[in-house]
Amino acid sequence: MLKGIPSVLSPELLKILMEMGHGDELVLADGNFPAASHAQRLVRCDGHAIPGLLDAILTFFPLDTYADHSVALMEVVPGDPTVPVIWDEYKALVQKHDPQASELKTVERFAFYERAKEAYAVVATGEKALYANIILKKGVVKEG
Fold it and tell me: Which of 28, 42, 81, 119 is the most buried (most CB within 10 A)?
């Protein structure tokens, strides 16, 4: 244990966040996402919901201010009546930690899967909300 580090962030996840460089992407995957088959590096965070993880991660993780969109969400499949209200939580958390972050972008389901395969890591969570998958593009730490 360390002081000031949210307990939801495991040593493995902290290591991954530290290893990532500018432009690398991190996927926070809901419980239905095929995480193991799409991950170059898989981090298990079973039992945790994405909003709590996202809040903890964004405490330390700079979003890419040079990218058109530093946050991507999986688009609702056409014809699916699901309204992903969890996106409102995500928008609030992104604004809380990075008010300069660009608008959240939606990505078509299969394009999202392809992007996840290229991501630095996929975090498999126990999130039960539908369309709760989110991709974060890492930016640079600007000191001083």
Answer: 28
Given a contact cutoff of 8 angstroms between Cβ atoms, the answer to whether 122 and 35 are in contact is yes
**64 assigned to active site:** yes
Measured between alpha carbons, how far is 38 from 18 in angstroms, rounded to an integer? 21
Can 113 be counted among the known catalytic residues? yes
Q: Annotated catalytic residue: which of 38, 64, 90, 98? A: 64
pLDDT tens column, 38-91:
999 999 999 999 999 999 999 999 999 889 899 999 999 999 999 999 999 999
Strand partners, 63: 138
Which of 58, 38, 37, 54 has the alpha carbon at shortest distance from 127? 54
**pLDDT category of residue 144 using cuts at 50, 70 and 90:** low
Beta strands in 30-133, from DSSP E residues, in sequence order:
42-45, 71-74, 105-107, 121-125
**Vertex 12: Cα angle to 89 and 47 (nearest 5):** 45
Return d(Cα 66, Cα 125) in angstroms, integer. Answer: 28
With b meaning 16 or more CB within 10 Å and e meaning fewer, what string describes 68-77? ebbbbbbbbe
